[in-house]
Amino acid sequence: MNSPKITLQTIKQQLDDFVLNSPKNIVPDLGMMRLFDRPLLAVASADDAYWEELKRPEVIGPCHLSPTEWLSGARSIVSCFLPFTESIRSANRSEGEPATEWVYGRYEGGFFVGDVCRFLVDLIQRTGGHALAPSVNERFAIVNLRSNWSERHTAFIAGLGTFSLSRSLITTVGSAGRIGSVITDMELEPTPRPYTALEEYCRKCGACIKRCPPMAIDKSGKDNNVCRIYCDGTKVRYAPRYGCGKCQTAVPCEARRPPVAQVAST
Ligand code: SF4
Ligand code: SF4
Prior knowledge:
The chain is an alpha+beta fold.
């Protein structure tokens, strides 16, 4: 185990600088549009009991690897939520077809999240720790639509937010964004998990139900298969890009944790 040679505050400062100044966070095709704003960062302990919970078939399943199965001696997991910029979110507030800005956010944004993960790995390694980012690791796999590392569940365990009716993760800066994480043998102080319920930040207002073009969402949750087929179908117009994200835009949880009072009047 490595004693801490870097603090979460230092990681945050350097990550902010990387995200806000990287040319890879810019899309020249779309008038130099920026993909992501300042990220949220949190830390989970490799000892957290939730890792074992994820192995239950009704959660993800035994295919989900725990931090120590990814990295021997793992102590901490740094989870990062990258919120989409207003440019991407506002463009997708229309109904029907996904906005071009949104599909760039999903596709180019996905590559940038990989860059963010590699940046964090390199940062930790330069301070003497070992680190690994499952989503860009050669062992990462998706079998029967279940991955061996879930960024959303990791973010939940780290305290970044809770799940929603549309199965996105609602953070204090909303649900429209992407998530990455890095496992390290550095001992970092876990951040508090300021909630107790899985869907605590979702007010069940139903706005996402009305936004979904293929009606994949109802009061009991989201049909992942209906969503996936619809999103895959958008490749006809946008290939290699694709996506939808209507359930994460023009809804109370788009860019904040929805306040109770607002949802009550929705
Ligand atoms: S739109 Fe409402 S019901 Fe849907 S995820 Fe957001 S808060 Fe929950
Ligand atoms: S991404 Fe689109 S298709 Fe999928 S649940 Fe959200 S609104 Fe529906």
